[in-house]
Amino acid sequence: MPATLYERLGGEERIQRLVTDVVENHYTNPLIRSRFANSNRAEVERHVVEFLCSGSGGPQCYTGKDLVSAHKGMNISEQELVAAMDDIVAAMTKNGYDQAEKNEVVAILYSLKGDVVRL
């Protein structure tokens, strides 16, 4: 039986390290950092870890808002989505993930575009 994406991402501990770098990238990215200006960084990280763990096949439960509710009224542009995805790929590269995992994560994120962009 092939390993789940969760297993290939290294489980919760390694995903936590990845998410710390992703959130740092988001908070410093000039295209999207204003979106995070008034957010609770620890809460953002916790929800992203839960989301990624749960969505990649891990046992964790996601306790945040659904994507539409979380992004409604933000009017996120396609450019901002791409910037966020670039931040994620950069963090994955920094954390030594293979191209196959990067491609799979990007494909999943892109499939969620309709739940995030222009709402």
Would you mind describing this structure in some detail?
The protein has helices at residues 5-8, 11-28, 41-55, 67-71, 78-94, 99-111. The chain is mostly helical. It has a single domain (5-115), classed as Globins (Globin-like). Helix 2 (11-28) crosses helix 3 (41-55), helix 2 (11-28) crosses helix 5 and helix 5 (78-94) packs antiparallel against helix 6. The model has no long low-confidence stretch (mean pLDDT 97). Helices cover 61% and strands 0% of the residues.
Main features:
119 residues; mainly alpha; 6 helices
Name the beta content range.
under 5%
Q: Roughly what is the average pLDDT, rounded to an integer?
A: 97
Rg, nearest Å: 14 Å
Largest sheet: none
* CATH topology-level name: Globin-like
Oligomer: single chain
Which regions contain 5 or more consecutive residues with pLDDT less than 50? none
The count of DSSP E runs of length 2 or more, i.e. the number of strands, is: 0
CATH architecture grouping = Orthogonal Bundle
Structural class based on helices, strands and sheet pairing:
mainly alpha
Task: Name the CATH superfamily classification.
Answer: Globins
**Number of separate helices:** 6
Question: What is the string of helix and strand elements?
Answer: HHHHHH
Give the proportion of residues in helices. Answer: 55-70%
Shape: globular
* N-to-C span: 39 Å
Number of domain modules: 1
Please give the CATH class: Mainly Alpha
GO molecular function, one term: heme binding
Keywords: Heme, Iron, Metal-binding, Transport
Organism: Variovorax beijingensis
Binding site for heme: 47, 71
